[in-house]
Design brief:
Elements: H1 3-30, H2 35-44, H3 67-92, H4 98-123, H5 131-144
Helix pairs in contact: 1-5, 2-3, 3-4
Length: 148
């Protein structure tokens, strides 16, 4: 089996597994909470997206991977992590702007996810040497697919 097939198989398996966990455990728990309280754990899932900055570490990924893709992925993820974290503080503080900030974070996160997927497909990113960062992508990205 080639690396590209393994990459997509692992992504799809993660989506399936995380979808089951979300349906069986997360959703039932969240329905018993207030809106603000339920949004916080969903936002915390987005906070580790700062890990995308790892793409800038020399030799972490294939040096042939286009810098534009790396920059878009890394800074897009960092902004999403910051927006999610700010939203958590806003929700916990019952700020008037909390829910609109959650909408901004969720919208940006989804746009960033689509942009990243476009880049992955256009450049055939799984064909590059992603090193250990590739494992991170396969495990953490599927959580990003479950919007708030």
């Amino acid at each position: 089996m080639d690396t590209i097939t393994i990459f997509w198989m692992q992504i799809l398996t993660s989506v399936f597994v995380f979808g089951i966990v979300a349906a069986w455990y997360v959703w039932p728990s969240l329905t018993k909470r207030s809106r603000n309280s339920a949004l916080v754990p969903l936002l915390f899932v987005q906070v580790p997206r700062y890990v995308g900055m790892t793409l800038f570490i020399p030799y972490m990924v294939d040096p042939k991977l286009p810098r534009e893709f790396i920059s878009n992925a890394a800074y897009g993820d960092l902004l999403e992590a910051a927006l999610a974290f700010a939203s958590i503080f806003a929700l916990r503080g019952n700020w008037r702007a909390a829910v609109p900030l959650v909408w901004v974070a969720n919208t940006w996160g989804f746009i960033d996810l689509l942009n990243g997927l476009r880049g992955v497909l256009q450049l055939n990113v799984p064909s590059f040497n992603l090193g250990t960062f590739g494992i991170s992508i396969r495990f953490t990205r599927p959580w990003s697919l479950f919007p708030i």
